[in-house]
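FAQ: What does a multi-protein file look like?

Like this. Sequence, then tokens, then the next protein.
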Amino acid sequence: MLTPRDQLLASHEEFRKLATEHTQYAERLDSLTQKRYLTDDEKLEEVRLKKLKLRLKDQMESIEREFRIQIQHHQVA
């Protein structure tokens, strides 16, 4: 049985787009954190990426929450 997240990745284009962006930001953050020293621009980019990543996570969780509610309503009906 697929998890709600897997179902959304398979069928919900906006969720899939958000997940892809989230992964890209995470990968860029990983590359920054592997550096011993960050330039001022890289430090700013790190902060910006963390905020963007968090915003995307919040959006994804909101979509997943709505999806779970829809599933519950269909199971009750």
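And here is the next protein:
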Amino acid sequence: MIKVLFAAAEAVPFAKTGGLADIVGTLPRALKKLKVDARVIVPLYGDVPESFRSQMKLVSTETVQLGWRRQHCGLFELQYEGVTVYFIDNEYYFRRKGLYNFYDEAERFGFFSKAVLDVLPRLNWTPDILHCHDWHVGMIPVLLRSHYCKAPWCSTLKTLCTIHNLEYQGIFPTSILGDMFNLEHDAKAVAALEFYGMVNFLKGGLEYADFISTVSASYAREIQTRYWGERLDGVLSRRSDRLVGIVNGIDPELYDPAKDEALFANYSTRSFKGKQENKLRLQQQLGLEVRSDAPLFGIVSRLVKAKGFELVHRVLDEIMAEGAQLAVLGSGEPQQEDFFRDAAQRYPGRIAVHIGYDDTLARRIYAGADLLLMPSQKEPCGISQLIAMRYGCIPLVREIGGLVDTVETFNPETYEGTGFSFTNYNAHDMLHVIKLACSIFQDKKRWSLLMKSAMKADHSWKTSAKDYVALYSRMIKEDFHVS
């Protein structure tokens, strides 16, 4: 049996800010079904609900040496839906409100990375692979080879570094090399971590990991180019023989409109009466005009530039001229939040905006909206479009990254497809497709066929989990090892 330990900064249902948590929290369950012993290790944040804390078992207490610092580390264990989840406890670093954006991010996640390696001998279980997710744990492969290489459990342990979003890299001053990691005299580590006069956690992971993966095949190709590579395209191109793209999936049991208790009414492909009720009740809840004939667009997203909402800025009036409505849920950059707040004031009863995140409201938007708008400038994979299709909410996306890998463009002549798409990052190209979608929406026969196709599309972890198993097997069998 293959044994894999997922190391990450967040995982559902314990702590979440975005799609990273969804993958880390759900993929291990899919791997379990394929006879992989997949476990998870995450920080024990202050935001972790007491309902989970009360079920945790203390495994050990350690002292982690982080440069000159001697920090307490508690290791807790919890069984959740058949998956073993470990928690690293340190109140100074993690018992705060929120997960990120503190002044000492390098120290917090440097500690977490070091703690993961320090507690491995205490697990009474030795993984074959350390699967490290995003920059927060990019130091694990570096520290493993630099400081732990003589440990008996290290000789066969392989590392996989998964990029969920290359934009976030963990860039810090070079002083941390000596101050926290005792790496200032390790020439190889210094070179691997060096990034334009700074230290880059993700770059270190990419240089030291045995394999690299990212969350869609298209994104794996894109990030090897200068335009999309976020100044790491050289590293990724050089290691392209060890770079694999595996598309994200979702848990179909977690997102099932026939059973979801958050919805106003449940439904399936057999009847869309429940979906119509969800639309009307959502309109009532959000203060929108209650109209079944108005195409309702949903946005469930971080409100940041990368999500392409500047295209919406430019043609909002034209979108509204199509008789459309817009329901927005998300938070992010002040400029984006202010734009949508102003839009709601300009179009009362037509646009509703909720700044923040609310899982119940998100599910109600997926169930009640007719279309999901995702005009992303860049999109490693995206999860919103996968969830939306499960609920019969048709994604309208830009053909980029994981969006082009997961949304099949609707063909009005054959009725085939699961969504709408446009290629160029251009507001009027998007508007053209929005007009097409609004036109097809009025043809209830075509729209029902489109909803059925979207809902029946398999975006579960079933296929992707098999791809991960194949990758794990390859890593274990091959002699290749970063030394």
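Q: Is there any per-entry metadata?
A: Some entries carry free-text notes. For the entry above: DSSP finds 19 helices and 18 strands in the chain.
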